[in-house]
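Re: the multi-chain job from yesterday

Posting the exact lines I submitted so nobody has to dig through the queue logs.
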Amino acid sequence: MDNVRELVRRFILDNFLPGEDASNLTDSTELKESGILDSMSTLKLVTFLESQYQVEFEADDLDAGNLSTVASIAALVTAKQRG
Amino acid sequence: MRTEAAVAIRPVGASAYLRHWSSIGQLALIVLVAHVYQLEGEPFTRVLWLAAAGFLVSIALPLRYRLPLFTCLSVAAVFLVFGLADGAWLIALGLTLIAICHLPIALRARIALLVLVGAGLAVLRINVVGSPWSAAIWPILGSMFMFRLVLYMRALKSDSGERTWWSSLAYFFMLPNVAFPLYPVVDYQTFRRTHFDADEAAIYDQGILWISRGLVHLVLYRLVYYNLLIDPADVARLSDLVQIVLATFLLYLKVSGQFHLIVGLLHLFGFRLPETHKLYYLAHGFTELWRRINIYWTDFMMKTVFYPVYFRVKRLGPAKAVALSTAAVFVTTWLLHSYQWFWLRGGFPMTWPDALFWGILGALVVRGALKELGAAKAPKRSARAWDPRMGLRAAATFFLFSLLWSLWSTESVGQWIWMLTSAGQVDVEGIVLLLATFGVVALLGGFDWEASKRAGSSRWRQPWVRSLGALTMLLVIALPAVRDFGPQSWDKALASLQETGLNVRDAAKHHRGYYEQLDVRGQINAAVAATDGDRSQWLDAAQAGIIRTREDAMERDLHPSLDLVWNGRAFTTNTFGMRDQQYSLQKPAGTYRIALLGPSHAMGNGVADGETFEHLVEQRLNSQQESNDPRRFEILNFAVDGFTLPQELAMLEDRVLQFAPDMVIVTHYHRGRTMTEAYLGKITWKQIPVSEELRAILARAGLDHVDRGSVPIPTEMGRALAGKLGLEPRMPQGEFEARVRRISDAVNDWALERIATVARENGAIPALLALNAVIDDAPADIPNIEAIRRAQYLVFDLFDVFPAQDRALLKVAPWDEHPNAMGHQVIADALYTQLLGALPPEKLSNLTHP
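And the result, structure tokens for all chains:
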């Protein structure tokens, strides 16, 4: 789970927060409320996670609660991997 | 909901007050600001007091009691605003809908049942069958359930978390909702998930900040509404166009202000909901704007339309899937805005400006979304530096969206195109306004405010510092001493911040934009609710059958020899079609005869025959003469519902002169110009013959020959071209109204001068009665005053005769601003006094001033 968490964090920093101080993105940073994740970046993140971990997301998985922080995203991916 | 064990231990009881003294103090300031500015009407005042009292109780309670308290307060607010009977209906209907959601049957069956019950309620909403509750509860019932049921059912389907009746009731009857029909679409899962999920002091601070921000937005809205908004028909120069385009978009401050207030109030009870609007005037593109303006709606659409459609069609490839799902969002949004209109106002409008607005915006957002999808990475931004490219993008987005918003706010596409083409005169003021606004938005939009927020917060960015600053500023600018400090325009602008009625344009036309019209809180107070049932039975003059249409310049008059009851009052006309007793054509010897001309409030809409001010003054004049004195007074009431000055002139020439009046009184009032515009519309479209002089004025505005084909084409050039292409063009309504606007004052000037001339030529004194209906928003000056002076009218100035504090008592009904019997008595008293000074002394015997 830690690996997933780090990968998600890295992906967000590289793709949605270029130039941002990495320490500003913690596991509990509110991704949506702080404007980091919007509809398009969510789709990009989902596409990345699907290809990286061979899992498939559904519309209901994208509820704000599941994607609110790096930690919750990692938890969702881990749960998906477990089936 | 989280349990108490899951959150940090908080002080309860008296110690809570010490911990939250800052929030309590600021909440007191909020109540004071709302009172000083009379913000958002009586229902909000009640809800705010209830919320403030509830907050004081809530912070002292253990966590497990706070949600039940909030639910009880929410239910109490319903009764506080609607009273017992309607409140009970609202709660009962709501409980029925919630109970259906929980029936022990399949989900699909429950959804089908909800749709069925919704259809039944819709039938009642359109009044096909009468409902036992007041019409005033519809907007709130609709607001509570029209979208939230969708999110609630969705949560029931997918969510296995803890759920209680308290949370369900709190979600639907949410405390502030009863005062705000236009309400953010709060997500049920977020509502539950965020309840006291962080430090409560921080939640309260955030709530207070958002309430304060909401108050600032609402006060700024008044500044725009009362000082900047003009009528599209008045656009003649570039500065007018820039002003109206900016002002219509800035009016949205009301929605963002209300939503901040609502979510801020919810924070006071622990619901740490996200922000509803985020710097939407500084968005860097349409896609970003769509995400920042009404964020709850965007999220609702994401959940219910965008993601479901995307995952269904993603096999087509990312670009096609994004385009299709975004298009689906905008089609749904367009339809749901009409659906929202239905529950809040009744009716299901589908207009071209609506379709074009959502269509164009949808296309722009799709384009932006595809561009974002194609971009490898987000551009690198600095939190501190100003980026000129971003600044320019923000300014361009602001202007283009303002223009698009102005399309949505006009009554027709024709009116919008005409408005754009009318601004042919490029004035310096317009260029300065354009450049200044562009510069300000570019300057502010060049910074990345989100990045700056993430980078950390200084002491000055602390929520309590910002909210205290905003509240103090609002209180300071409300001080009379501050208003006296600057020039007159400053004083006027600051005074407008505390106004509550319609602005001059709306008062005259009773027209408002989409969100303005959805703000139906006027209906939602107990007084209106109590009488609303009578309103459906209320008949206007045409429905009552008293009006006869004519094909000459008078256009209408009263049926002669009527004897009927209209809205519960006796209404009779004599054989000459006057709303008056019978008079002889021949003036009796020794009689001083006054002819009264005017519109509905002079005719006496809403009062019985013996209650009109004309009758009261006549009776009083004669009652003070000695009984054997042959000198009598007659006031002949020639007023007709809907009459304008040109019609009063036509009546004078057609009928009044044969009665040989000694004085002719015409009535002029705040809606004189608007009514004349409507009259000019009728005579033009119906091709009614009018005098050469009036025809010449119409020709000045290009209205002597109006194309009457089937295809609306703006501008004469456009219609000429369309004619050559074999089409049958007609002038669009918006253009017609704008052309009429250009001459309506000239028509009234002409009618006033002509009436005075005709009266004098026939031995009568021309007099003018300046008299409004019982309204709050009358302009300060009598319209057409220069023409009145030129024509040397004797003026009876009753323009502001109804004392502000008594107006509610002097109206026929809450929805009808004609004066009632008491109102006519007020007019009669004032007119009698002024008339005495104007009557020839030899006609008076014992008459004295009252």
